[in-house]
Write a structure and sequence with these properties.
alpha/beta, FAD/NAD(P)-binding domain, six-stranded mixed beta sheet, 24% strand, FAD binding, FAD-binding domain-containing protein, monooxygenase, FAD-dep_Monooxygenase_BioMet
């Protein structure tokens, strides 16, 4: 049976799911509200442009891409995260933790835009159609089909619909109502990219000499900076702080680069210098080639990720705080798990969605809750709390991190092994019934 699958959202998880479906002979169609007038490349492949900064491609996410033949290319485009330094805001190192290495593989930092372009090229090569300027308005379902209606008056009908449309998912809102709306964490962030070499002067090299991944935190003032080497030639950074801003302002942010880059460079450079960061980071901000601002949101826990013939993946299902570096990875897991399940049971969508829920709801919500706890450890309301939090970083995280490696537990997950186990169990159950 060939499934026609409507995928709403062309970020990364949606197109990755489309690739799994296409290789199994199904018909995936991808729709995104992005306006091509604002994209740097609207031809083939589909590309949002040079926006955002780096993401951590851990081994659980790598396994998904590798199954599609994209793993080596993703690692080649990124930079190995061999260790991570946890520091005070002035650069004083609290803990230096080696990354977990499994079968010779290690997590990589990669620019989000490079990863999205890599996946977009693969979609083009596999003749997967991606339609832009498609803003979803409504969804209607029957027993055997689902129809999406877009703001331009057009419609699309398929066997199932997948919401891969991010933290502010329209699909989630339609399916589960206003109570499923993502909530603003209070953190506003700016993410930037700086080229190594002359544009960053010697300071870029000095920062990278500190290691490929560094975190600087002022727990009492609630300032947080992450810096990573995202490729052989680029540095990516994120500056976040707890701010009192209207949620509407944070929600309306469209995750596009600042139009007045010099103004934002100056503003942020002055701000972080006042925070007392190492001098080389100030220069990195001043010489950034792009800066993007966004609000940090998380979704409330859902009892299920599907309703009828519609299902959620990625941030649409479980947008989480970035403190574990797992948001992108578990989104890729979703795409891989759902893709393989649909290929195993294409004639029983209800069974696929129930098995998908069984695999994904508990795992993703546990990771989201852990990220929330780590975020709370980052910031304290007293100097005493700050002292004890730093001690936790020095002693607990530093000690166990050196033994077990950075973020080892979440990164050990192999989606294909998990899908195989649940499929074998399900088919065994069917055989016993017969």
């Amino acid at each position: 049976m060939v499934l026609k699958v409507l995928i709403i959202g062309a970020g990364s998880a949606g197109p990755v799911l489309a690739l799994f479906l296409k290789r199994a002979g199904h018909e995936p169609l991808v729709y995104d509200l992005y306006d091509p007038a604002n994209a740097s490349n609207t031809g083939n492949p589909f590309f949002f442009g040079d926006i955002g900064g780096a993401v951590n491609l851990n081994l659980n996410g790598y396994h998904v891409l590798n199954e599609l033949g994209l793993g080596e290319a993703a690692h080649a485009a990124g930079y190995p995260m061999l260790n991570a330094k946890f520091c005070k805001i002035d650069g004083t190192v609290l803990a230096n933790i080696p990354a977990a290495v499994t079968n010779g593989l290690v997590a990589h930092n990669i620019l989000r835009s490079d990863l999205q372009l890599l996946v977009g090229k693969a979609c083009t090569e596999n003749k997967i159609k991606i339609f832009v300027t498609k803003k979803l308005i409504s969804i209607s379902q029957s027993n055997d089909s689902v129809t999406a209606t877009f703001s331009d008056g057009s419609t699309a009908t398929g066997d199932i619909l997948v919401g891969a449309d991010g933290a502010h998912s329209k699909v989630r809102n339609i399916l589960f109502g206003d109570s499923s709306k993502s909530t603003f964490t209070g953190f506003m962030a700016n993410v930037g990219v700086c080229k190594l070499g002359k544009s960053a002067g010697e300071n870029g090299e000095e920062l990278i000499a500190q290691g490929p991944f560094n975190i600087y935190v002022d727990r009492f003032q609630k300032h947080h900076i992450t810096v990573s080497q995202a490729s052989e030639t680029t540095i990516s950074w994120t500056v976040a702080q707890l701010e009192t801003v209207p949620e509407e302002l944070a929600t309306s942010n469209t995750y596009r680069p600042h139009s007045d880059l010099p103004k934002q460079q100056r503003r942020l450079a002055i701000m972080v210098e006042e925070w007392g960061v190492p001098h080389y980071f100030v220069d990195i901000v001043r010489n950034s080639t792009r800066i993007t601002e966004y609000g940090v949101f998380e979704t409330p826990e859902l009892a299920s990720y599907y309703q009828g013939r519609c299902v959620l993946i990625g941030d649409a299902a479980h947008a989480m705080r970035p403190d574990l570096g797992q948001g992108m990875n578990v989104s890729l897991e979703d795409a891989g798990c759902l893709g393989l399940l649909l290929c195993e049971f294409p004639d029983n969508v209800d069974k696929v969605f129930k098995l998908y829920d069984k695999m994904r709801v508990t795992r993703t919500q546990l990771i989201a809750e852990t990220a929330r706890k780590v975020s709370k450890l980052d910031f304290q309301d007293s100097q005493l709390g700050t002292f004890f939090a730093n001690m936790v970083i020095r002693i607990v995280i530093g000690f166990f991190g050196k033994i077990f490696g950075l973020f080892n537990a979440a990164g050990k997950y192999e989606f294909k092994t998990e899908v195989k186990a649940i499929v074998v169990a399900e088919k065994g159950k069917q055989a016993s019934i017969k």
